[in-house]
Amino acid sequence: MAQPLLVGKTRRVSQLARAFGIFVLSTSALAAQGQEAPIFKSAVERVALTAVVRDSRGKLVKNLTARDFELLDSGRSRPLIGVWSEPSPASVAVLMDSSGSMATKKERAHFVAESFIEGLQLGLDEVALYAFDTTLQEVQPFTKKLWTTSGAWKSTRTFGETSLWDAIAATARRISGRQQRRALLVITDGVDSASELRPEEVSAIASELDVPVYVLVIGFLQDDGSGEPLPVKGPLADLAAWTGGDSLLIQDTPSAITATRQILTELQHQYVIAFEPGNAPGWHPLVLKTRKNGLVVRARSGYVVRALDK
Fold first, then answer.
1. How many Å from the N-terminal Cα to the C-terminal Cα in the chain?
2. What per-residue confidence (pLDDT) applies to 6?
3. Structure confidence by residue, pLDDT tens digits, 109-139
4. 42 vs 25: CA distance, rounded Å
5. What domains sit in the chain, N to C, each tagged with a CATH number?
6. Minimum mean pLDDT among 22-31, 57-66, 224-233: which range?
7. Which residues does 43 contact at the CB level (< 8 Å), separation at least 6?
8. Rounded CA separation 176/19 (Å)
9. How far apart are CA 191 and CA 124, in angstroms?
10. Per-position DSSP letters for the chain, written without gaps between them
11. How far apart are CA 178 and CA 120, in angstroms?
């Protein structure tokens, strides 16, 4: 059902405030999601942080433990409660740009979405489909019956302006609280013409909810000779990086397949890292790194602690 995205400054501020809550990780929530719950020593609030680690050649690193990571919270080292990377179900929302600028690109965009969904783990992973122009439409609620999504995009049409930033923020909120491994896949041409939110505000929302945003930009055919998807630059690339996701340019079928496989592999090999958050109100910038040289870590850029009401 289509619904308006952010309208007016007051609504934007209130939605941002609601988004700035700490995600609480508990063993009971993990058990309900079918995951193996780590053992914690106390019952205080815990923040979950998902991360992807690659070596200098771009290969995923899958065998790290808590002793291999160091977490800086506002510049100070923060002890880790637990780190685990066992296979577990994932929740993914696919957000399709259906604004007027996508009219000549929709077939390629639909192919990208279907290729990605085909790679999810049948019976384990769940997916939801959304489309947007200046409103957000739920095309398919979360389901593990992945085959039911085939042809779902036929009900959408390309029309109107683009509220890209607002749509990303609104969809990220819908993933929060589902499986611990989760991601938002955005398929767009990268044009925004009507959003209320700014990219940095959307990044704060997605980072706070620990939703990595992967942006696949449908672009024109180029060739740098590498055979790999070309990187995306600008606000979209920054937003993806701040949330621990990635951004890639889709030019043709090979680049679409390469990009979707890369995202699927990362999703299946995310590290989940638990730590006790600080209690100082405000934004807490996070830097997650490894004690091993030559490894690159992607994780969200921080979290927010709200002041207690007096």
1. 39
2. 45
3. 999 999 999 999 999 999 999 999 999 999 9
4. 12
5. 2-6+87-268 (3.40.50.410), 17-83+270-305 (no CATH)
6. 22-31
7. none
8. 10
9. 34
10. -EEE---SHHHHHHHHHHH--PPPP-HHHHHHTTPPPPP-S--S--EEEEEEEE-TTS-B-----GGGEEEEETTEE--EEEEE-----EEEEEEEE-SGGGTTTHHHHHHHHHHHHHTS-TTT-EEEEEEESSEEEEEEEEES-GGGGTTGGGG----S---HHHHHHHHHHHHTTS-SEEEEEEEE-S--SS-SS-HHHHHHHHHHTT--EEEEEE------SS-SPPBP-SHHHHHHHHTT-EEEEE-SHHHHHHHHHHHHHHHHT-EEEEEPPP-SSEEEEEEEEESSTT-EEEE--EEEEPPPP-
11. 16
Q: Which phi and psi (to 5°) does residue 286 adopt?
A: -115, 140
Read off the pTM: 0.82
What contacts 263, CB < 8 A, 6 or more positions away?
Answer: 116, 183, 185, 214, 246
What Å distances lie between residue 152 and 2, 57, 112, 135, 224, CA to CA?
Answer: 15, 38, 13, 18, 34
Q: What is the mean pLDDT of residues 63-71?
A: 95
Say which amino acid occupies 64: L
> Do the beta carbons of residue 112 and residue 258 sit within 8 Å?
no
The mean pLDDT value of the chain amounts to 83
Q: In the numeric block, which tokens belong to residue 110?
A: 């639909």
Sheet holding 271-275, edge to edge: 80-84, 271-275, 47-54, 296-299
Amino acid at residue number 275: F
CB 167 within 8 A of CB 99: no
Give the Cα separation of 96 and 129 in Å (integer): 8
| Amino acid occupying residue 250 | I
